[in-house]
Protein backbone atom coordinates (compact mmCIF):
# COMPACT_ATOMS: atom_id res chain seq x y z
CA UNK A 1 0.00 0.00 0.00
CA UNK A 2 2.86 2.36 0.86
CA UNK A 3 4.50 1.68 -2.55
CA UNK A 4 1.26 2.48 -4.35
CA UNK A 5 0.90 5.77 -2.44
CA UNK A 6 4.47 6.76 -3.30
CA UNK A 7 3.94 5.88 -6.97
CA UNK A 8 0.69 7.81 -7.02
CA UNK A 9 2.34 10.89 -5.52
CA UNK A 10 5.23 10.60 -7.98
CA UNK A 11 2.77 10.31 -10.87
CA UNK A 12 0.90 13.43 -9.71
CA UNK A 13 4.12 15.45 -9.41
CA UNK A 14 5.34 14.38 -12.85
CA UNK A 15 1.94 15.11 -14.38
CA UNK A 16 1.87 18.61 -12.86
CA UNK A 17 5.40 19.29 -14.13
CA UNK A 18 4.50 18.11 -17.64
CA UNK A 19 1.34 20.29 -17.72
CA UNK A 20 3.37 23.29 -16.55
CA UNK A 21 5.82 22.83 -19.44
CA UNK A 22 2.95 22.56 -21.93
CA UNK A 23 1.43 25.81 -20.59
CA UNK A 24 4.77 27.64 -20.85
CA UNK A 25 5.26 26.41 -24.43
CA UNK A 26 1.74 27.49 -25.39
CA UNK A 27 2.30 30.87 -23.73
CA UNK A 28 5.58 31.37 -25.63
CA UNK A 29 3.90 30.52 -28.93
CA UNK A 30 1.16 33.09 -28.36
CA UNK A 31 3.81 35.75 -27.81
CA UNK A 32 6.01 34.76 -30.72
CA UNK A 33 6.52 36.67 -33.92
CA UNK A 34 6.03 35.45 -37.47
CA UNK A 35 9.34 34.44 -39.01
CA UNK A 36 9.92 34.45 -42.75
CA UNK A 37 12.58 33.01 -45.01
CA UNK A 38 14.67 35.77 -46.56
CA UNK A 39 12.98 35.81 -49.96
CA UNK A 40 9.45 35.60 -48.51
CA UNK A 41 10.22 38.26 -45.91
CA UNK A 42 11.62 40.75 -48.39
CA UNK A 43 8.51 40.30 -50.54
CA UNK A 44 6.27 40.84 -47.49
CA UNK A 45 8.31 43.93 -46.51
CA UNK A 46 7.98 45.42 -49.98
CA UNK A 47 4.22 44.85 -49.94
CA UNK A 48 3.74 46.25 -46.42
CA UNK A 49 6.44 48.98 -46.61
CA UNK A 50 7.83 47.79 -43.28
CA UNK A 51 11.49 47.61 -42.31
CA UNK A 52 13.12 44.21 -41.87
CA UNK A 53 15.18 42.59 -39.17
CA UNK A 54 17.32 39.66 -40.30
CA UNK A 55 18.34 37.32 -37.48
CA UNK A 56 21.51 35.39 -38.35
CA UNK A 57 21.58 32.30 -36.13
CA UNK A 58 22.60 28.64 -35.86
CA UNK A 59 20.95 25.81 -33.93
CA UNK A 60 24.07 25.25 -31.82
CA UNK A 61 24.36 28.93 -30.77
CA UNK A 62 23.42 29.23 -27.08
CA UNK A 63 23.09 33.05 -27.24
CA UNK A 64 20.78 32.70 -30.26
CA UNK A 65 18.58 30.33 -28.25
CA UNK A 66 18.61 32.76 -25.33
CA UNK A 67 17.51 35.63 -27.65
CA UNK A 68 14.69 33.44 -28.97
CA UNK A 69 13.49 32.29 -25.56
CA UNK A 70 13.96 35.45 -23.49
CA UNK A 71 13.92 38.44 -25.83
CA UNK A 72 11.90 37.78 -29.00
CA UNK A 73 9.07 36.24 -26.94
CA UNK A 74 8.92 38.98 -24.28
CA UNK A 75 5.40 40.38 -24.72
CA UNK A 76 6.32 44.05 -25.40
CA UNK A 77 9.15 43.07 -27.74
CA UNK A 78 6.96 40.57 -29.60
CA UNK A 79 4.21 43.16 -29.98
CA UNK A 80 6.66 45.76 -31.35
CA UNK A 81 8.26 43.26 -33.73
CA UNK A 82 4.87 42.14 -35.01
CA UNK A 83 3.47 45.64 -35.52
CA UNK A 84 6.51 47.44 -36.93
CA UNK A 85 8.83 44.93 -38.62
CA UNK A 86 9.07 41.93 -40.89
CA UNK A 87 11.19 39.29 -39.17
CA UNK A 88 13.53 37.08 -41.20
CA UNK A 89 15.62 34.21 -39.91
CA UNK A 90 18.73 32.90 -41.63
CA UNK A 91 20.25 29.69 -40.36
CA UNK A 92 23.86 30.28 -41.33
CA UNK A 93 24.39 26.55 -41.77
CA UNK A 94 21.41 25.88 -44.03
CA UNK A 95 21.29 25.48 -47.80
CA UNK A 96 18.54 28.07 -48.30
CA UNK A 97 19.19 30.29 -51.33
CA UNK A 98 18.91 34.02 -50.73
CA UNK A 99 18.22 36.57 -53.46
CA UNK A 100 19.25 40.12 -52.61
CA UNK A 101 19.72 42.97 -55.08
CA UNK A 102 19.55 40.58 -58.03
CA UNK A 103 22.31 38.33 -56.71
CA UNK A 104 21.90 34.81 -55.35
CA UNK A 105 23.73 33.79 -52.18
CA UNK A 106 23.90 30.80 -49.89
CA UNK A 107 23.69 31.72 -46.17
CA UNK A 108 27.46 31.64 -45.70
CA UNK A 109 28.05 33.98 -48.64
CA UNK A 110 25.27 36.31 -47.50
CA UNK A 111 26.69 36.39 -43.95
CA UNK A 112 30.12 37.21 -45.35
CA UNK A 113 28.69 39.95 -47.56
CA UNK A 114 27.45 41.69 -44.40
CA UNK A 115 30.58 40.87 -42.41
CA UNK A 116 28.72 38.75 -39.87
CA UNK A 117 31.50 37.38 -37.68
CA UNK A 118 29.53 36.04 -34.72
CA UNK A 119 26.10 34.84 -33.75
CA UNK A 120 23.55 36.06 -33.09
CA UNK A 121 23.74 39.09 -35.37
CA UNK A 122 20.79 41.27 -36.35
CA UNK A 123 20.76 43.10 -39.67
CA UNK A 124 18.34 46.02 -39.97
CA UNK A 125 17.01 46.84 -43.44
CA UNK A 126 14.87 49.94 -44.02
CA UNK A 127 11.44 49.97 -45.65
CA UNK A 128 13.11 50.69 -49.02
CA UNK A 129 15.17 47.51 -48.84
CA UNK A 130 18.46 49.23 -47.96
CA UNK A 131 20.68 47.89 -45.18
CA UNK A 132 20.95 50.32 -42.24
CA UNK A 133 23.14 48.60 -39.65
CA UNK A 134 23.99 45.31 -38.06
CA UNK A 135 24.12 44.58 -34.34
CA UNK A 136 26.14 41.59 -33.14
CA UNK A 137 25.48 39.68 -29.94
CA UNK A 138 22.84 39.15 -27.33
CA UNK A 139 20.97 42.04 -25.72
CA UNK A 140 18.43 42.22 -22.92
CA UNK A 141 14.76 42.71 -23.81
CA UNK A 142 14.53 46.26 -22.39
CA UNK A 143 17.52 47.46 -24.43
CA UNK A 144 16.25 45.65 -27.53
CA UNK A 145 12.82 47.28 -27.16
CA UNK A 146 14.44 50.74 -27.11
CA UNK A 147 16.51 49.79 -30.16
CA UNK A 148 13.33 48.72 -31.97
CA UNK A 149 11.72 52.08 -31.22
CA UNK A 150 14.86 53.89 -32.36
CA UNK A 151 14.87 51.95 -35.64
CA UNK A 152 11.11 52.07 -36.31
CA UNK A 153 11.01 55.85 -35.84
CA UNK A 154 14.05 56.18 -38.13
CA UNK A 155 15.96 58.23 -35.56
CA UNK A 156 19.20 57.04 -37.15
CA UNK A 157 18.31 59.12 -40.22
CA UNK A 158 18.08 62.27 -38.07
CA UNK A 159 21.69 62.03 -36.86
CA UNK A 160 20.61 60.98 -33.38
CA UNK A 161 22.84 58.36 -31.80
CA UNK A 162 21.26 55.36 -30.12
CA UNK A 163 23.19 56.24 -26.97
CA UNK A 164 21.58 59.72 -26.83
CA UNK A 165 18.17 58.28 -27.68
CA UNK A 166 18.48 55.55 -25.05
CA UNK A 167 19.57 57.99 -22.32
CA UNK A 168 16.70 60.35 -23.15
CA UNK A 169 19.10 63.14 -24.15
CA UNK A 170 17.54 63.21 -27.64
CA UNK A 171 13.92 62.54 -28.53
CA UNK A 172 12.69 61.27 -31.86
CA UNK A 173 9.12 60.76 -33.05
CA UNK A 174 7.53 59.49 -36.20
Quick gist of this model?
With 174 residues, the protein is of the alpha/beta class. The relative contact order is 0.13.
SSE run: HEHEHHEEEHEEHH
- Chain oligomer state: single chain
β-strand number = 7
Strand content: 15-25%
Spatial extent as radius of gyration? 20 Å
Dominant shape: globular
Mean pLDDT: 87
Fraction of helical residues: 40-55%
Helix/strand/pairing class, anyone? alpha/beta
- The termini sit apart by 70 Å
Are there runs of 5+ residues with pLDDT below 50, and where?
17-30
Would you kindly provide a written description of the structure presented here, covering whatever features stand out?
This protein has 174 residues and is of the alpha/beta class. The chain is 49% helix and 18% strand. The protein contains 7 helices and 7 strands. It has helices spanning 2-30, 38-48, 62-72, 75-84, 107-113, 141-152, 162-167; strands spanning 35-36, 52-57, 86-91, 98-100, 103-105, 121-125, 131-136. Strands 1-3-2-6-7 form a 5-stranded mixed beta sheet. Strands 4-5 form a two-stranded antiparallel ribbon. A hairpin with a 5-residue loop joins strand 6 (121-125) and strand 7 (131-136). Helix 4 (75-84) packs parallel to helix 6. The longest helix is centred in the N-terminal third of the chain and has 29 residues, at 2-30. It is globular and about 45 Å long. Mean pLDDT is 87; it is low at 17-30.
Amino acid sequence: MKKISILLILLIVLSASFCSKIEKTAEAKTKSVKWYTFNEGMAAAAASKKPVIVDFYADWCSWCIKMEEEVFTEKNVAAKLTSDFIMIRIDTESNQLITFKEKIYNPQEFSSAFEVTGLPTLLFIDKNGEPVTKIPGYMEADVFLKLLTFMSTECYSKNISFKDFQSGKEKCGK
